[in-house]
Amino acid sequence: MEVNVFISCRAMPVSYTIFRPELSACKYFTFALRNQASMSEERSLNFLEEIIELHLKEGKYEHIHTRFPPEPNGYLHIGHASSICLNFGLAKKYKGKCNLRFDDTNPVTEETEYVESIKNDIKWLGFEWDGEYYASDYFEKLYGFAVELIKKGLAYVDDSSAEEIAAMKGNTMEPGKNSPHRDRSIEENLQLFEEMRAGKYKDGEKTLRARIDMAHPNLLLRDPLMYRIKHAHHHRTGDAWCIYPMYDFAHGQSDSIEHITHSICTLEFIHHRPLYNWFIEKLGIFPSQQYEFARRNMTYTVMSKRKLLQLVNEGHVDGWDDPRMPTVSGMRRRGYTAQAIRQFSDTVGIAKRENMVDVGLLEFCVREHLNKKANRMMAVLDPIKLVVSNYPDQTEELDLENNPEDENGGTRKVPFSRELWIEREDFMENAPKKFFRLGPGLMVRLKGAYIVKCENFKKDADGNVTEVHCTYIPESRSGHDTSGINVKGTIHWVSVPHAKTAEVRLYDRLFKVEDPSNEEGDFKSYINENSKQVLPAVYIEPALAAAQPGDHFQFLRKGYFCVDTDSTPGHLVFNRTVGLKDAWAKEAKKQ
Ligand code: ATP
Ligand code: MG
């Protein structure tokens, strides 16, 4: 399968076709990222920037005003993060404003918990909103707008049931039929609408509809619903209302009330645009305008809140912030940085056509940032003991560099002693020719310490290696090496008497297929059962004992890790954020 990544961004405004699974995109991305600094001044504008620049040049607006309008019915995901970067990013670039507006017109699915998490995520991503608004703040105003349209003969109360309304709608080939209630008098409509508000009718008994055209070629304009009755408690307005505006009657009017100049939404709303314009025009209010861009989809995950909620409620993951979730809170917990997510959004850019971005690109951005930011540390995930038989019974404090990518990174003391933990995979009884680690008679450098030579090893009754014995070369200490010996391999280690233990959680992709929503049957049947592996007690160097939740590290040769919020003072938990290389690309090459 091919994955299309449309890049209307930094380096070139071209549509790239990336052939999975080699992820050659990463090569392109390296190029794009490396060139970003130098090209950002002269890069092509995306289509929204072009529109905005024209509007500013023509004097249509003095300043632009965007908004991010989440419905508080779930946690934000990477798709929302793209929309956030776009809306807040445009406002920042053109010295305009960006509001945060909660689109809370559906009392049934919305909760305050979601409002708080959304605010927290936006701040964490590094953005500040100018105004914080709620569509529910406008309920009275919207009611007034509806009354105005009734008075103009442009809205009516319909007694038809949902089924009757659907049956009268017609289809793309046939016009719809007028409701028998379409020609009620203005007075009667005003009275009925007031009674709807007052709670005189049950859910579904009546609706308010716009009086447009039942033969309109765009089905959305065939007398769309404006209000429905819902006797439900709202998370902000409580029981003050039992009628609630539909999305189409709330969104454009809310934009207009806030004087939003560029109302950016996803492509599925393109057919709603004429309706958005119709309400604004008939009400004669500030002419906000809607622009559409393609949703961000990413491989090996699902993005709709409805599906994410199922994963949470049915226990397929450990909550909205499970590190395998594509939610902002999940990615944060896993150790993705806000900068990496912004970089990802910015580099992929925006498109006008539906597209699928490979998750490998996001991981690439995460690695790029953590490579600069994360201190290098040593942890042994699958240990066997290495005894340095000619090393005296003492402890030596060695200086190890924290981060070769950061000139101010400094060094730390790491204790070295006669007994060390090393990775089981770094020893082979019958090592092949190009194995540059330990095996009978082989030599390797212990990171930041000495060169050792394997003399022999012990096995248990089942034939598993339990201990490796080496001798060390005293003149070979890193930084002071006068031994004249060159070895090809370097391995990491942790001193046995000084080691601390920690839990490590390793993650893989949550789904086994690229686009679970597009496969036959239930998307949940494509869940990868091996997406989480827990190592209850790995050995870490003592300096890591002071790590705090949210801290990032590179465990040498093992990947980037982040301290999980489940950690307690005596029990550290590390999440593997991402491996050092793309393990999937390597797998694919083998095939
Ligand atoms: P979902 O389908 O995941 O539930 P939604 O569109 O219902 O998403 P909203 O809370 O209404 O979620 O979205 C808030 C804003 O984020 C909207 O402007 C929406 O267009 C944008 N958005 C949502 N999902 C994506 C996505 N995958 N890519 C880009 N923008 C998105
Ligand atoms: Mg929505």
Q: In summary, what is this structure?
A:
This protein is α/β, with parallel strands linked by helices and 591 residues long. Helices cover 27% and strands 24% of the residues.
Give a written overview of the molecule.
The protein is of the alpha/beta class and 591 residues long. Among the domains are: 46-132 and 252-352, Rossmann fold (3-Layer(aba) Sandwich); 139-246, Glutamyl-tRNA Synthetase, domain 3, CATH 3.90.800; 379-492, Ribosomal Protein L25, Chain P (Beta Barrel), CATH 2.40.240. Helix 3 packs across helix 12 and helix 12 crosses helix 13 (359-373). The model is unreliable at 1-41 (pLDDT under 50). Residues 69-71, 79-80, 82-83, 103, 265-266, 295-296, 303-305 line the site of adenosine-5'-triphosphate.
Main features:
single chain, 591 residues, alpha/beta, Glutamyl-tRNA Synthetase, domain 3, 7-stranded mixed sheet, 24% strand, elongated, disordered N terminus, binds adenosine-5'-triphosphate, binds magnesium ion
The CATH superfamily name of the domain at 46-132 and 252-352 is HUPs
Largest sheet, in brief, is:
7 strands, mixed
Query: What is the CATH topology of the domain at 46-132 and 252-352?
Result: Rossmann fold
Considering DSSP H and I runs of 4 or more, what fraction of the residues is helical? 25-40%
Please tally the helical runs, counting DSSP H or I stretches of 4 or more residues: 14
| Stretches with pLDDT under 50, minimum 5 residues | 1-41
What is the topological layout?
Elements lengths: L1 E7 L4 E7 L5 H15 L7 H12 L6 E4 L9 H16 L3 E6 L9 H14 L6 E3 L4 H13 L3 E4 L3 H6 L18 H13 L8 E4 L14 E5 L13 E3 L1 H11 L4 E5 L6 H11 L5 E5 L2 E3 L6 H9 L14 H7 L3 H11 L6 E3 L1 H15 L1 E3 L1 E2 L2 E6 L7 E6 L9 E6 L2 E5 L19 E4 L4 E9 L5 E8 L17 E2 L2 E2 L4 E8 L24 E9 L11 E4 L3 E5 L9 E6 L4 H8 L1
Parallel strand pairs: 3-4, 4-5, 10-11, 12-13, 14-27, 16-22, 20-23, 25-29
Antiparallel strand pairs: 1-2, 6-7, 7-8, 8-9, 15-26, 16-19, 17-18, 19-24, 20-21, 21-22, 25-26, 27-28, 28-29
